[in-house]
Design goal:
Largest sheet of chain B: 2 strands, antiparallel
Distance between the termini of chain B: 42 Å
Strand content of chain B: under 5%
Distance between the termini of chain A: 15 Å
Number of helices of chain A: 9
Shape of chain A: globular
Structural class of chain B: mainly alpha
Helix content of chain B: over 70%
Largest sheet of chain A: none
Order of helices and strands of chain A: HHHHHHHHH
Radius of gyration of chain B: 31 Å
Number of domains of chain B: 3
Helix content of chain A: over 70%
Low-confidence stretches of chain A: none
Mean pLDDT of chain A: 87
Shape of chain B: elongated
Low-confidence stretches of chain B: 242-262
Radius of gyration of chain A: 18 Å
Strand order of the largest sheet of chain B: 1-2
Oligomer: heterodimer
Number of strands of chain A: 0
Structural class of chain A: mainly alpha
Order of helices and strands of chain B: HHHHHHHEHEHHHHHH
Chain lengths: ~190, ~325
């Protein structure tokens, strides 16, 4: 039990995916302009990450047993893409409300560093099945937390007209992310 | 002659004018993560360029055969094949690079640059053009990674040319240049995570300043920067993700017009509906007039009614004409 708690804490605060490990930066910076879209994106990321780990970890065991572990990259990305497509169709048919809330982010998450990154990290860190699921859940929660905080900061930035001209737009956003990342560095050594 | 000039343009636009990292704002994950030193960045750039060139060639060869609906998974399969190849090569011949890139080597497969160029360029152009585009973009990517890595290494570590990716430790040590003062007091924050964000921001600010001087507009992180922008319907993006502006680079100009066109189409549809309604009412008014005429044999009254109906019809025609003029 203690191990799971430390895994989650580590993924949420210490090894935060967008801020410390630079995985999933594109949606992190692209979708976090508004708070509700950040919330939707974060929940979608948690959903996809846990599902992708649930699917890819057993497949990796199979690949290792058959001595074709080098096909990891190809198989993982295909499984993730197919799975997300399939889940989007299932959601559309059976839970339309959820599809309306999350559906537009699902294609954005598919070819995204974060999901493939967490699947590969699970294998590299040598976690077993329950630990991998907890790891990816923690990674998703960390992503959500970072995005919520960041979108709050960005909304404050919107009304500011004192930003110098070259820094307007992307650079000031990145600088804000740098400050947030600096803040999260304070959690280093916690776990 | 024209063809040759445009080929040279294809090759060179990826290096400075449409640098994938700094102007198109694609591929930010490896940019931030692998630029802890100049050679690290260069190694990542070379690996990604190799995948980019090869996948561009193969995808432009297969462009006519791949059905449109499954093109993204097909591109992913091709790119993943080349990434596995690069993984093997790097693991065999450049072990220090393999160790320092870590998880970002297999993550080349979801690099927005490669998928984006395949989507926007390779499936529409010939093999030679796609190869030139891949070479140009790869050079630009490698250049920007190396420059950023050099800056971060110099300020954050006080060294230059450290961490060479071939050979062993001794070779690396012999190539490293230690700058005297900075080596003792490095600004460690630049070499760590926040520094990556900040140095990237500064370089983009410099590039934006150059773009502004030349009269262009810098781009923003938006749906338009994502390689899958053509896959998710953009109107949905704009509506649901909340007024994210889709930038209008040359390749996406057509798509950027699409939302405007839908507004025009909507206005046209509304006008057409109103015109149809007006026509229907006019027709009904005429039918009423006919009824009235048959009911009311009084000619004066009938004439008055007719005049009124004709006036109404004329007014409605004027309204629809006005709506047509507004468009």
């Amino acid at each position: 039990m203690g191990l799971y708690f430390s895994i989650i804490l580590g993924m949420v605060l210490v090894n935060n995916y967008p801020l410390a490990q630079f995985l999933g930066i594109c949606p992190f910076l692209g979708v976090s302009k508004k708070l509700d879209s950040s919330l939707g994106m974060g929940v979608a990321v948690i959903f996809v990450m846990v599902m992708a780990t649930a699917a890819t970890w057993p497949i990796m065991k199979l690949l290792s047993a058959w001595n074709i572990a080098y096909l990891q990259t190809i198989v993982f990305i295909l499984v993730i893409a197919a799975l997300v497509q399939f889940v989007e169709m299932v959601l559309k048919k059976f839970i339309p409300a959820l599809h309306k809330a999350l559906g537009v982010y699902l294609p954005l998450i598919t070819t995204n560093c974060a999901v493939l990154g967490v699947c590969i990290n699970n294998i590299d860190l040598g976690y077993n099945y329950p630990q991998s699921l907890v790891n990816s859940f923690g990674a998703g929660v960390g992503f959500l937390l970072a995005m919520l905080i960041f979108s709050g900061m960005r909304q404050k930035l919107e009304n500011n007209n004192k930003v110098p001209k070259p820094f307007q737009g992307v650079p000031i956003t990145m600088t804000t992310a740098a400050l947030l990342s600096l803040a999260f560095m304070g959690f280093g050594g916690l776990v | 002659m024209e063809n040759k000039v445009s080929r040279l343009q294809i090759l060179t636009k990826g290096i400075i004018k449409e640098n994938p990292n700094l102007v198109l704002l694609l591929g930010t994950c490896p940019t931030l993560a692998t630029t802890s030193s100049a050679f690290n960045g260069m190694g990542m750039g070379i690996a990604a360029s190799f995948v980019l060139i090869c996948s561009n060639i193969v995808i432009s060869l297969l462009a006519k055969i791949i059905p449109d609906k499954v093109r993204i998974p097909c591109y992913i399969v091709v790119i993943a094949g080349f990434v596995t190849l690069v993984q093997f090569i790097v693991q065999a011949y450049a072990v220090p690079l393999y160790n320092s890139l870590g998880v970002f080597l297999p993550l080349i497969v979801v690099n927005c640059i490669i998928l984006g160029r395949a989507e926007m360029f390779a499936n529409k152009n010939g093999v030679l053009d796609s190869a030139l585009d891949g070479i140009g973009m790869g050079l630009g990517f490698t250049l920007s990674l190396t420059v950023m890595g050099a800056i971060r290494e110099l300020i954050g570590n006080g060294t230059l040319l450290s961490g060479f990716f071939l050979g062993d430790e001794a070779l690396q040590e012999s190539l490293t240049i230690h700058i005297p003062f900075v080596n003792e007091h490095p600004m460690l924050i630049i070499a760590l995570a926040p520094g990556g964000f900040f140095v990237y921001a500064s370089i983009i600010a410099f590039v934006n300043w150059l773009i502004n001087r030349k009269g262009g507009t810098p781009r923003d992180f938006a749906c338009g920067g994502c390689a899958l922008a053509s896959m998710c319907t953009q109107e949905k993006c704009v509506a649901e993700l909340g007024e994210i502006e889709i930038p209008a680079p040359k390749a996406m100009a057509a798509k950027a017009e699409a939302p405007k066109m839908s507004e025009e189409e909507k206005a046209a549809k509304i006008a057409a509906a109103k015109a149809a309604k007006a026509a229907k009412e006019a027709a009904q008014a005429e039918a009423n007039a006919a009824e009235v005429k048959s009911e009311n044999p009084d000619p004066v009254l009938a004439a008055a009614e007719n005049a009124l109906l004709r006036k109404k019809a004329a007014e409605q025609e004027a309204v629809t004409e006005k709506k047509g003029d507004e468009e």
